[in-house]
Amino acid sequence: MRHPILIALAGTLVLSACAKNGDAEVQRALQDLNVVDETNLNDVMLTVGDPEEAVRYFAGANANDPGRVDLMRGLAKSLVRAGRATEAITAWNNVIAHPQSNSDDRVNLADAQIRANQWDAAAATLNAIPPTHETFDRYKLEAMVADSKKQWDKADSFYQTAAGLTTTPAGVINNWGFSKLTRGDYAGAERLFTDALRQDSTMFTAKNNLVLARGAQRRYDLPVIPMTQVERAQLLYTMALTAIKQNDLTIGKGLLTEAIDTHPQHFEEAARSLRALEA
User: Fold this and answer.
1) Which residues, including other chains, have CB under 8 Å from residue 193's CB and lie 6 or more apart?
2) Tens digit of each residue's pLDDT (9 = 90 or more) over 73-125
3) Distances from the Cα of 72 to the Cα of 102, 129, 184, 264, angstroms
C-alpha cells in the first residue's frame, strides 16, 4: 500500500527538480537576452545616436561596470564622434592599457592623435603596431602621416595599399588626389579625383576637388560628370574663384555670372563675389 505514496513522492521530487532546472534555464535565457539588448543599444549609440548622448551613455556604463573593454572602446569612439579628440586620446590610452586590447585599438589611438593635430605622436603609435597588422585604416593613417612629413613616395605607396584593402575606395582615392593637389601635381590629382568619382559618382568633395585641379591648369570648362543643377552652380563658383585667384578676371566674372544664372535659387556667395569683382 505504500508503493503509490512513494511513487507519488518521487514524482513530486522530479517535478520540483524540473521546475528548478527550468527556472535556471529561464534566468540564463534572460541574461543572454539582456546581453543581446545591451549589444544592440551599444551599436545604436556608436552609429546613429547623438554623439554627446553616446558619450554620456558610455561614461555611465563604464562607471557602473568598470573594466569592460567593450564599454571602454565605446566611450573612446563616442568621444571621437563628438569631436572631442583630446579626451578620446586619453580614453584610447586606457583601452590600450587593458589586457584585452589589440592592434586595432592602437590604430584608433593614432586616428584620435591625428584629429588632435598630434602628428609625431600618431607616427610613434603607428610605428609600434606590428607590420603584420595590414588593414585599410592603418594604411590610410600611414599615408596621412607620410603626407604631413612630405614623404611623397611613402604616401603614394600607403594610399595605393589602402585603396586595395577596401571595397569602397572613393574616399581614400580622393584624399590621395588632394595630396597630389597640395604638391602641385595637378594632372595627377585630376586623374585620382576622376577615379574617385568612378567609384562613387555622388561624392561632391571629389567633384569640387576635380574642378580645382582643372582650374589650376587653367582649364575652365566643367568636366563631364553627373551633377545636379545646384552642384553645377557650386562647381562653376569654385571654377570662378580659381580663375580669379590666377588673375584671369574676365573668365572669373563670366563664370560667376553663369553660376548665378544656373542656381535654381538666389546664390548669395556668387552674387557677393561678382559685386566685389565689379567694384
Assistant:
1) 174, 177, 206, 207, 209, 210, 213
2) 999 999 999 999 999 999 999 999 999 999 999 999 999 999 999 999 999 99
3) 13, 20, 43, 48
The string of pLDDT tens digits covering residues 47-60 is 767 899 999 999 99
Dihedral angle over CA of 258, 264, 269, 274, nearest 10: 30
This prediction's pTM = 0.80
Kindly report the length of the chain. Answer: 279
Which whole number is the average pLDDT over 222-243?
96
Output the DSSP codes for 144-209: HHHHHTT-HHHHHHHHHHHHTT-S-THHHHHHHHHHHHHHT-HHHHHHHHHHHHHH-TT-HHHHHH
Burial of 11 (0-12, 13-18, 19+ CB in 10 A): exposed
Do residues 58 and 71 make contact, with C-beta atoms less than 8 angstroms apart? yes
What is the C-alpha to C-alpha distance for residues 77 and 108, in angstroms, rounded to an integer? 8
Over the stretch 56-80, which tens digit does the pLDDT of each residue have? 999 999 999 899 999 999 999 999 9
Closest-CA residue to 196 (of 47, 242, 188, 82): 188
SS3 state at 49: coil
Give me the amino acid identity at 39: T
Q: Which amino acid makes up residue 205?
A: T
